[in-house]
Amino acid sequence: MVAAICGIVIVMSIFTYLMWGIANRIDTMASTIVKMGDDMHAMTLAQGTMVKDIGTMSEHVVSMDRQLTAVSKNMAIITGSTTRINANMARMTHDVGRSSSMFSSPMAYFWNMGR
């Protein structure tokens, strides 16, 4: 009888030790899952901030696109103005040449008035 009780106590001790080990592993798993939940929450908050930042960046890109379109149109205007200035410079050069000719030879100026 004593041997049977000792055997039962030993078997129950081993069973209790095994159950304690399993409970310990489950506790470790539960705490790991809780930490993962906290990390997921932090990631969700970070993604919310990222979405706002991406929205702001998108607005800035649209604004920059409008500004570049305006610059492109202004460059076309500047190019046209430069072309007109070049044409006027050619006429002005011709007129300065005629004026120089007039001062150096007034009669030649009168002879070439139609040019």
| Content of β-strand | under 5%
> Biggest sheet, in brief?
none
Q: Helical element count?
A: 2
Distance between the termini: 142 Å
Low-confidence stretches: none
Query: What is the number of beta strands?
Result: 0
Instruction: Kindly state the percentage of residues in helix.
Output: over 70%
Written description of the protein model:
The chain is mainly alpha-helical. The protein has a domain at 84-115. It has helices at residues 2-104, 106-111. The termini are far apart. 0% of the residues are buried.
What would the keywords be for this entry?
115 residues, mainly alpha, rod-shaped
Short description:
This protein is mostly helical and 115 residues long.
Structural topology:
Layout: H1 2-104, H2 106-111
